[in-house]
Amino acid sequence: MSVLVYAEHTAGSFRKPAYEAVSYAKAIADTLDTSVTAISIGPVDESELISLGKYGATTVLHVAANELKQFINQAYASVIAAAADHVDAPLVIISNSFSGKGLAPRVAAKLKGGLADGAVELPVFESGKLTVKKTAFSGKAFAMAELVSDRKVISLNVNTFEVREIGGNARVEAFNPQVAANDLTTVIQDIVRTTDSVSLPDAEIVVSGGRGLKGPEHWGMIEELAEVLGAATACSKPVSDAGWRPHSEHVGQTGITVSPKLYIAIGISGAIQHLAGVSSSKTIVVINKDPEAPFFKVADYGIVGDAFEVVPKLTAAIKAYKGD
Amino acid sequence: MNILVCISNVPDTTSKITFSNDNTSLNTAGLQYIVNPYDEIALSKAIGLAEGGKGTVTVINVGESTTESTIRKALATGADDAVRVNATPRDAWFVAHQIANYAKSKHFDVILTGRESIDYNGAQMAALVGELLSIPSVSTAKKIEIDSNMATIAREIEGGEEVLSIPLPLVAGTAEGVAEPRIPNMRGIMSARTKPLVVIDPIDVPVLSRIVRYETPEPRGTVALVNANDVGKLVDLLHNKAKVI
Ligand SMILES: Cc1cc2nc3c(=O)[nH]c(=O)nc-3n(C[C@H](O)[C@H](O)[C@H](O)COP(=O)(O)OP(=O)(O)OC[C@H]3O[C@@H](n4cnc5c(N)ncnc54)[C@H](O)[C@@H]3O)c2cc1C
Ligand SMILES: Nc1ncnc2c1ncn2[C@@H]1O[C@H](COP(=O)(O)O)[C@@H](O)[C@H]1O
């Protein structure tokens, strides 16, 4: 028996969400008095696979089959379910990334397991049942979900569980289950990266602009501030509706939900739909010229002032501080 | 081309979400219900694909009779007919079985869901229905084009997008960018009253999960304001107090 965790990679490298998922699996495995087996699918170097041991994986199953080089959720789900059988996993952990969303429900269905989607904390075990806290109502609330099936699947929200380095190397094992042709009908034609910088859903710092910025030509100062902070950029819905920024940057109830360490909202009023997507940020800073803007009610720090004056000053101050 | 669109009935986005005293159920008093915003995108896309006699659009909802005004709105927007599975939607697993069961009895080339619902927002439905029907699924589609029996779909990934080509039939969960939401016009509203809305009974599905309790986020303390002429103070607070930079 072993807790199984799917370690997602981008072009052969693991990123923070994979380390979070392995750390999370390890914490659960300790409670259940068992080990962690990670599974990685596609071309990843041996040294990269071994490094998952640092976060608590004892074994890494590596699937190197040619037809599984690129992510096809249907096929990857079959492989992960086969791995769950192989290691007799009572529980499977998958990161709640865009790919994870296409994967976790399919794995759960194959295992006839309950799925807790978007977990934000470690689960609690009690007489065969597992209860875990997850987001609901687009960030307006949390739900405690109880999984009563024999086998269970949890998808873990990114940026909600600390990476824990405990040292050690993982043992890498080749794993080659049969994959049915019916699972492989999807063909990946192209992968387009629109940003070389930080990806919004897993960014630790987010700098976000609203309609107060008046137009797309003023985003230079947002990007500069983001750059000095190593942050991702985001926006409110009207901004992406107007085409000032791409839809993939729109946060809120009908956009991306983020939970960074620091969220800086500039020229955003703080409508309930916007707040829903950012309320689980650890620290919120609001810059708005209207002292009555509702965003100040949920902010930790605020500056009442004109963004066009405050933001360049803030960028300069952070540059100065980082220069020290 | 026959298209099935899954519609969920959710509290309006302006709703303040509160729970019963024991935190076990949502306070529904005073809540306005709407078609889930992402499902409007799915519906608008389906209508666009079917336009000009190229196909039919059926909407399906798993819900109690109170959801019928939401279903009628979908019909008014342009769906041809509707199905309501008469049940309380227990969880995604339950709902997906009802949808897959209905889909099996018909032939659908394309099944669309929203990328997530704004109430329980599991973002599970597209992948679950796909799995139950053993067909491909895409969970966060940003662009969908269909050419005879092949679809080209761009899906969201962290920091970019991936372009897939997939044979029909398939299930896709739609995000913004797939279609502009359509609004019902007067003719639509009139004709919606006479369009078929069939009510069917649910099938039995084993319980795998349940929600035992809700929580609302901890309120934050009051905001600490920093003078606009002293941004250095903010940097200091973020570094030394909040410890986030
Ligand atoms: C179904 C539905 C779903 C929605 N979903 C979302 C969602 O997911 N995300 C989302 O963001 N919104 C969403 N909205 C929209 C939401 O209701 C608000 O309209 C939106 O968030 C407002 O965006 P904003 O704050 O950028 O613009 P505004 O409300 O126009 O606010 C602009 C702010 O900028 C300030 N300002 C102006 N000039 C300056 C300056 N020079 N310096 C500093 N501050 C300045 C103003 O004081 C004001 O507070 C949704 C709405 C609906 C109906
Ligand atoms: N009760 C329901 N009836 C029909 N479709 C639903 C229902 N609940 C959710 N859906 C569909 O599934 C999508 C994703 O929902 P969810 O998995 O709850 O995030 C929604 O956008 C709808 O298209």
UniProtKB/TrEMBL annotation, chain A:
Keywords: Electron transport, FAD, Flavoprotein, Transport. GO terms for molecular function: electron transfer activity; flavin adenine dinucleotide binding. FAD binds at residues 211, 267-274, 288. The keyword Flavoprotein applies. Residues 3-196 form the Electron transfer flavoprotein alpha/beta-subunit N-terminal domain. GO terms for biological process: fatty acid beta-oxidation using acyl-CoA dehydrogenase. Its cofactor is FAD. Binds 1 FAD per dimer. Belongs to the ETF alpha-subunit/FixB family. This is Electron transfer flavoprotein alpha subunit apoprotein.
Automatic annotation (TrEMBL), chain B:
CDD domains: ETF_beta. Transmembrane segments: none annotated. SUPFAM superfamilies: Adenine nucleotide alpha hydrolases-like (SSF52402). It comes from the Bacteria. Keywords: Electron transport, Transport. The keyword Flavoprotein does not apply. InterPro entries: ETF_a/b_N, ETF_b, ETF_beta_N, Rossmann-like_a/b/a_fold. Residues 23-209 form the Electron transfer flavoprotein alpha/beta-subunit N-terminal domain. GO terms for molecular function: electron transfer activity. This is Electron transfer flavoprotein beta subunit. It comes from Parapedobacter koreensis.
